[in-house]
Amino acid sequence: MMTAHTQTLLLAGGLAAVLILILVVSTRMMLAARRQPRSRAATEQAYQELAERIAFAQEASAASLSRLQSDFTEMRAKLDAVERVLLEKERKPSEP
Fold it and tell me: Which residues form a coiled coil (predicted)?
């Protein structure tokens, strides 16, 4: 059978363990709360940098597309000219 003194010591030890657990959990929560704004700021900065790179890539893509369209138009005009020459050649009888 346990004595009153032993029961008191066990109860005090249990309370001390609970208090230590509460202290550890609350400290971890406070530290996490302090890190969150820094983490959020770093994430926002990373998103901003990503958005800038995407905008630059989009501008470069638009410029490339414009050049390609211009080249295509030029090639189409040249192909049309070659086609006209070939059609004219086909229509006229060849002269000996």
Answer: 40-92
